[in-house]
Amino acid sequence: ADTAPAGATVLALPGKTILPGLIDMHVHLDSNPRFGGYTGLQFTDMFWVAQGVQNARDMLEAGFTTVRNVGSGNYADVGYKQAIDEGLMTGPRIVPAAHALGATGGHCDETYLPPSFKTKGEAVGDGPEELRRRVREQRKYGAEVIKVCATGGVFSRNTEPGQQQLSEEELRAIADEAHQWGLRTAAHAHGAAGIKAAIRAGIDTIEHASDPGRHAQRGAGARPRTRRRCDRRRPLRRHHRRRRRSDPGRATARAGDDGGQGRGGGPLTVPFRHQAGEQRFLTNVLVVPVGPIR
Fold it and tell me: How far is CA 43 from each of CA 7, 37, 277, rounded to the nearest angstrom?
């Protein structure tokens, strides 16, 4: 073995493997797995921003030195990045998306309140030109990647997860505008129609891909989310066995994508401090041991 230089501190780690800092491609640092849907309405807007301070620290201490935050409220992820860069907050390097783009009434719109509240998602747009403006707005205020909701989702009301919500023309306008500004794009997409439209439109990564069916394609990186419940009483091994036959990770692996690590960041995910455990889960599901680490 090489001799350590004079004055160096030697840490003996027999039987251990040292990895470089990990990268998580899908987080929402201003979320909390304890609250979701109507239960989240009991708190002020800034309550959610405050979540990210501890969540960012937890991610770093779990071994993640870079995260891609694909959607936040109140430009929280941009604020976290700025605070970390200035040495005022502890956390990983953050690639922020700011507000996620979406269609009126879609997954990235506000769907939990009645019409009298007149609520609307901050980056909702309809039609190619309006969505181009939304891309420019997010970039103007600090976004370094553009997130768009191409289909419905699990944690919004009155939306079907697999239903396509933006046309291919709208998705192409988002991708083209982002690429013009030197930004990459990520599409929340569950169903095959939305996945294929996003790929054809030039979107760079597909998030979730929970129902690609027989039509999974090459062309964009697919990053399956693991929607594990935050119930520590449930044996994870048994839960993993139940999911192995139908988990999207296997479909994307068969389609030629080795998958990147990412978490949904919502009410059905594990706390950020346990994030490193997802590495083992992805390896078991994808059956590509090196995939999540590559």
Answer: 51, 12, 29
